[in-house]
């Protein structure tokens, strides 16, 4: 019942051209002139093959906000963007702060079959920042949670943050911090600087991010634990992280595609599609983030895919929701901002969008090399395609993309998860078909 | 001009044209019959998402003296979470056939959103949005200054060489922002004086000077001192220790007022906190323009509505 594919003439991340035979959920053979032996032929001439992308920062909205996204629609968007695994943030309703909720999300992901769903557990009960959630129970659950985050909120109490960092050492966990000093950002609407003063929008100062990161890396050093910094957005944050890494502190960091491409100038339109937290920053920040991703100071790109219904994104700025959808556009934006200028090659893209996020999240079976025996978690990307990013590129439930109408390079042609195609020649497959393939694959490996 | 959303987009020529039309409108106000037929059959909606009786009645008087039909629409609590959305309100007004919408909104940018959303065809006048702009207030301030400086010879002139001090809560003031763009465009030199906490963090791109010391700034003999309303609640955000210290350091008290030459104009957009940012003696002095500002507000708003809605440019009827 499982699918077999022969991918012909794909360009590996290292630049070599090879055929790949996918069989039994793995890369069975890798070479040239491979025999199809009845497998479906996939013409990959001109396509780059990468390990399936892994997003360490996705909002799937289920349970609780199904009008924005569900596990099914969110992972469909993931597949469309070339992702084979997503880490689902905990700010659902109920909050993912118990074993029951994370197991529910995990199961919904397995059943949908578009991508592996790895739940992230809340650090504190209800994201309230007051007492620790049952981190151990979530770690020991069927969902095997290793990443904990109150994303959307900062774990700002220094004692709670210290304890959380210490506690998760027991099971190899990591705290993914949304670095935002709450008092410095009360009512904040956009990056604080010259433009916020002109537009009359309350400022979100860079120091509110940088001061929390500085505190947290010192805490991580003190207790010998592992810290991950979500959506780094400022040049100053890059400097702090660079310093911490040089000092040997176990810190990793992510940048979003939108912070690599867009600047605060977009806010002058008061178009709420550009409202996001942390906010879009200055051109100097964008440049510092690109340099940091190129030199490894920032480890990964994560989307912070944040679906919202139309009515939350078309009114006045202050009343509109923070967030942008980003799964479907991430690879194209990284292509535009990092590959086209020669700052990353495709092997680097595999690292920052697949291998490193899987490693940080301790997720097995994802983020491998493209080699014989590796799980058939792959994406085939056409880097030569260029076009307007339109609604037809969006495969989730919400359409709050900042890129609609922009010209972006590249397009995802095929995505393979557990050996079967979730995207075939540019088309996302039907949900029922994918669920059937997932059920078969699941029974296959027990 | 299709909309009046801010002063930042106004050229010197556009601003002077508007002020000159306001002079014509002011002249009409001295006639026995104050009403012009210019906007007969047009509908102007005062769409106020924030209470402001003064601004609303000023716009209402302006529209009525141009013979427009006026509808007052008070829509408090506009956001998605709090009732009717801006979109629904706009579409309602569109369906009612509004030709002009005068909007006051607590969110910066809401008038721009209304004007550019495609929800409505009406001309939009910003009557104050959040902490962003309040263009008709700045225009009436400029009009008042120009009349005091040039009297009957005001037409066609800017404010060249006039030195204007704007004092107080610049950070939260849409009046300060609109004046900071408009007055320099008209040739004035503007200095903003405030505690450092009540200035935006970066005003280097603004065509103005900034300073913290009111006494030093007054010592430079400005032609105009404009005091901004300060909200005593700001002390809770730690912008200043308390209202006494604010008044002592940044208020136009009797001693500071007495030291000014008789020719210095004292302005305030209202409503005033007497004894806080401005002492009663200054407010009630002949140098105070506070009541003129109110009267001129109607003329300036007539000019704005005329330019937006009459479908023709040039001198008033």
TrEMBL record, chain A:
<dbReference type="Pfam" id="PF12890">
    <property type="entry name" value="DHOase"/>
</dbReference>
<feature type="binding site">
    <location>
        <position position="151"/>
    </location>
    <ligand>
        <name>Zn(2+) 1</name>
    </ligand>
</feature>
<protein>
    <recommendedName>
        <fullName>Dihydroorotase</fullName>
        <ecNumber>3.5.2.3</ecNumber>
    </recommendedName>
</protein>
<comment type="pathway">
    <text>Pyrimidine metabolism; UMP biosynthesis via de novo pathway; (S)-dihydroorotate from bicarbonate: step 3/3.</text>
</comment>
<feature type="binding site">
    <location>
        <position position="151"/>
    </location>
    <ligand>
        <name>Zn(2+) 2</name>
    </ligand>
</feature>
<dbReference type="GO" id="GO:0004151">
    <property type="term" value="F:dihydroorotase activity"/>
</dbReference>
<feature type="binding site">
    <location>
        <position position="304"/>
    </location>
    <ligand>
        <name>Zn(2+) 1</name>
    </ligand>
</feature>
<feature type="active site">
    <location>
        <position position="304"/>
    </location>
</feature>
<comment type="function">
    <text>Catalyzes the reversible cyclization of carbamoyl aspartate to dihydroorotate.</text>
</comment>
<feature type="binding site">
    <location>
        <position position="178"/>
    </location>
    <ligand>
        <name>Zn(2+) 2</name>
    </ligand>
</feature>
<feature type="binding site">
    <location>
        <position position="231"/>
    </location>
    <ligand>
        <name>Zn(2+) 2</name>
    </ligand>
</feature>
<comment type="similarity">
    <text>Belongs to the metallo-dependent hydrolases superfamily. DHOase family. Class I DHOase subfamily.</text>
</comment>
<dbReference type="InterPro" id="IPR032466">
    <property type="entry name" value="Metal_Hydrolase"/>
</dbReference>
<dbReference type="InterPro" id="IPR050138">
    <property type="entry name" value="DHOase/Allantoinase_Hydrolase"/>
</dbReference>
<feature type="binding site">
    <location>
        <position position="91"/>
    </location>
    <ligand>
        <name>substrate</name>
    </ligand>
</feature>
<feature type="binding site">
    <location>
        <position position="59"/>
    </location>
    <ligand>
        <name>Zn(2+) 1</name>
    </ligand>
</feature>
<feature type="binding site">
    <location>
        <begin position="59"/>
        <end position="61"/>
    </location>
    <ligand>
        <name>substrate</name>
    </ligand>
</feature>
<feature type="binding site">
    <location>
        <position position="57"/>
    </location>
    <ligand>
        <name>Zn(2+) 1</name>
    </ligand>
</feature>
<keyword id="KW-0378">Hydrolase</keyword>
<keyword id="KW-0862">Zinc</keyword>
<dbReference type="InterPro" id="IPR002195">
    <property type="entry name" value="Dihydroorotase_CS"/>
</dbReference>
<keyword id="KW-0479">Metal-binding</keyword>
From TrEMBL, chain B:
<feature type="binding site">
    <location>
        <position position="137"/>
    </location>
    <ligand>
        <name>carbamoyl phosphate</name>
    </ligand>
</feature>
<dbReference type="InterPro" id="IPR006132">
    <property type="entry name" value="Asp/Orn_carbamoyltranf_P-bd"/>
</dbReference>
<dbReference type="GO" id="GO:0004070">
    <property type="term" value="F:aspartate carbamoyltransferase activity"/>
</dbReference>
<comment type="subunit">
    <text>Heterododecamer (2C3:3R2) of six catalytic PyrB chains organized as two trimers (C3), and six regulatory PyrI chains organized as three dimers (R2).</text>
</comment>
<feature type="binding site">
    <location>
        <position position="174"/>
    </location>
    <ligand>
        <name>L-aspartate</name>
    </ligand>
</feature>
<feature type="domain" description="Aspartate/ornithine carbamoyltransferase carbamoyl-P binding">
    <location>
        <begin position="3"/>
        <end position="146"/>
    </location>
</feature>
<feature type="binding site">
    <location>
        <position position="55"/>
    </location>
    <ligand>
        <name>carbamoyl phosphate</name>
    </ligand>
</feature>
<protein>
    <recommendedName>
        <fullName>Aspartate carbamoyltransferase</fullName>
        <ecNumber>2.1.3.2</ecNumber>
    </recommendedName>
</protein>
<keyword id="KW-0665">Pyrimidine biosynthesis</keyword>
<feature type="binding site">
    <location>
        <position position="134"/>
    </location>
    <ligand>
        <name>carbamoyl phosphate</name>
    </ligand>
</feature>
<feature type="binding site">
    <location>
        <position position="270"/>
    </location>
    <ligand>
        <name>carbamoyl phosphate</name>
    </ligand>
</feature>
<feature type="domain" description="Aspartate/ornithine carbamoyltransferase Asp/Orn-binding">
    <location>
        <begin position="161"/>
        <end position="308"/>
    </location>
</feature>
<dbReference type="Pfam" id="PF02729">
    <property type="entry name" value="OTCace_N"/>
</dbReference>
<keyword id="KW-0808">Transferase</keyword>
<comment type="pathway">
    <text>Pyrimidine metabolism; UMP biosynthesis via de novo pathway; (S)-dihydroorotate from bicarbonate: step 2/3.</text>
</comment>
<feature type="binding site">
    <location>
        <position position="271"/>
    </location>
    <ligand>
        <name>carbamoyl phosphate</name>
    </ligand>
</feature>
<feature type="binding site">
    <location>
        <position position="54"/>
    </location>
    <ligand>
        <name>carbamoyl phosphate</name>
    </ligand>
</feature>
<feature type="binding site">
    <location>
        <position position="82"/>
    </location>
    <ligand>
        <name>L-aspartate</name>
    </ligand>
</feature>
<dbReference type="InterPro" id="IPR002082">
    <property type="entry name" value="Asp_carbamoyltransf"/>
</dbReference>
<comment type="function">
    <text>Catalyzes the condensation of carbamoyl phosphate and aspartate to form carbamoyl aspartate and inorganic phosphate, the committed step in the de novo pyrimidine nucleotide biosynthesis pathway.</text>
</comment>
<comment type="similarity">
    <text>Belongs to the aspartate/ornithine carbamoyltransferase superfamily. ATCase family.</text>
</comment>
<dbReference type="InterPro" id="IPR006130">
    <property type="entry name" value="Asp/Orn_carbamoylTrfase"/>
</dbReference>
């Amino acid at each position: 019942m499982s699918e077999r594919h022969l991918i012909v003439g794909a360009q590996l991340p290292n630049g070599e051209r090879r055929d790949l035979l996918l069989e039994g959920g793995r890369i069975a053979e890798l070479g040239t002139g491979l025999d199809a032996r009845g497998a479906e032929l996939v013409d990959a001439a001109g396509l780059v093959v990468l390990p399936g992308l892994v997003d360490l920062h996705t909002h799937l909205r289920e349970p609780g906000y199904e009008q924005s996204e569900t596990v099914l629609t969110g992972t469909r968007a993931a597949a469309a963007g070339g992702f084979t695994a997503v880490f689902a943030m905990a700010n659902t309703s109920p909050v993912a702060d118990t074993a029951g909720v994370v197991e529910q999300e995990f199961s919904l992901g397995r059943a949908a079959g578009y991508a592996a769903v790895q739940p992230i557990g809340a650090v504190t009960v209800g994201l309230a920042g007051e007492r620790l959630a049952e981190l151990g129970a979530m770690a020991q659950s069927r969902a095997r949670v290793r990443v904990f985050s109150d994303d959307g909120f900062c774990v700002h109490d220094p004692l709670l943050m210290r304890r959380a960092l210490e506690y998760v050492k027991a099971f190899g966990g990591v705290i993914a911090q949304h670095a935002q000093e709450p008092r410095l950002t009360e009512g904040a609407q956009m990056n604080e600087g010259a433009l916020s003063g002109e537009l009359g929008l309350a400022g979100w100062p860079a120091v509110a991010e940088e001061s929390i990161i500085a505190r947290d890396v010192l805490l991580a050093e003190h207790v010998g634990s592992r810290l991950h910094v979500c959506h780094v957005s400022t040049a100053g944050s890059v400097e702090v992280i660079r310093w911490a890494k040089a000092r040997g502190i176990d810190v990793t960091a992510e940048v979003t595609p939108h912070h690599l491409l867009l600047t605060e100038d977009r806010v002058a339109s008061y178009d709420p599609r550009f409202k996001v937290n942390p906010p879009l920053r200055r051109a100097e920040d964008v440049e510092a983030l690109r340099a940091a991703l190129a030199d490894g100071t920032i480890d990964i790109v994560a989307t912070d895919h944040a679906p919202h219904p139309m009515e939350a994104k078309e009114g006045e700025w202050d009343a509109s929701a923070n967030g942008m959808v980003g799964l479907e556009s991430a690879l194209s934006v990284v292509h535009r901002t990092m590959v086209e200028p020669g700052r990353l090659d495709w092997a680097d893209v595999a690292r920052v969008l697949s291998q490193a996020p899987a490693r940080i999240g301790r997720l097995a079976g994802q983020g491998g090399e493209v080699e014989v025996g590796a799980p058939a978690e792959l994406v085939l990307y056409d880097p030569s395609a260029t076009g307007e990013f339109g609604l037809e590129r969006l495969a989730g439930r919400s359409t709050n993309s900042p890129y609609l109408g922009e010209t972006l390079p590249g397009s995802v042609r095929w995505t393979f998860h557990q050996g079967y195609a979730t995207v075939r020649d540019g088309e996302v497959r039907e949900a029922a078909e994918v669920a059937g393939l997932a059920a078969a694959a699941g029974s296959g490996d027990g | 001009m299709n909309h009046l959303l801010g002063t930042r987009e106004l050229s010197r020529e556009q601003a002077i044209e508007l002020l000159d039309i306001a002079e014509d409108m002011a002249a009409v106000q001295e006639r026995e019959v104050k009403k012009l037929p210019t906007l007969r059959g047009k509908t102007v909606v005062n769409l106020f998402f924030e209470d402001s009786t003064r601004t609303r009645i000023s716009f209402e008087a302006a529209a009525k003296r141009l013979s427009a039909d006026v509808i007052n629409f008070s829509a408090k609590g506009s956001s998605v979470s709090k009732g009717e959305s801006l979109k629904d309100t706009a579409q309602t007004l569109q369906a009612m056939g509004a030709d002009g919408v005068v909007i006051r909104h607590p969110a910066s940018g809401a008038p721009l959103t209304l004007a550019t959303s495609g929800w409505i065809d009406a001309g939009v006048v910003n009557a104050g949005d959040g902490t962003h702009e309040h263009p008709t207030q700045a225009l009436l301030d400029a009009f008042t200054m120009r009349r005091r400086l040039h009297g009957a010879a005001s037409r066609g002139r800017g404010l060249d060489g006039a030195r204007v001090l704007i004092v107080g809560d610049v950070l939260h003031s849409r009046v300060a922002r609109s004046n900071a763009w408009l007055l320099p465009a008209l040739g004035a030199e503007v200095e903003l004086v405030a505690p450092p906490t009540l200035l935006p963090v970066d005003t280097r791109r603004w065509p103005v000077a900034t300073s913290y010391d009111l006494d030093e700034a007054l010592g430079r003999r400005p032609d105009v001192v404009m005091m901004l309303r300060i909200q005593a609640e700001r002390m809770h955000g730690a912008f200043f220790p308390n209202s006494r210290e604010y008044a002592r350091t940044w208020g136009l008290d009797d001693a500071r007022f007495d030291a000014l030459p008789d020719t210095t104009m004292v302005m305030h957009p209202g409503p005033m906190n007497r004894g806080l940012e401005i002492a009663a003696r200054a407010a009630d002095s002949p140098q105070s323009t506070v009541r003129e500002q109110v009267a001129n507000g109607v003329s300036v708003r007539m000019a704005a509505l005329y330019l937006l809605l009459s479908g023709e440019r040039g001198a008033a009827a």
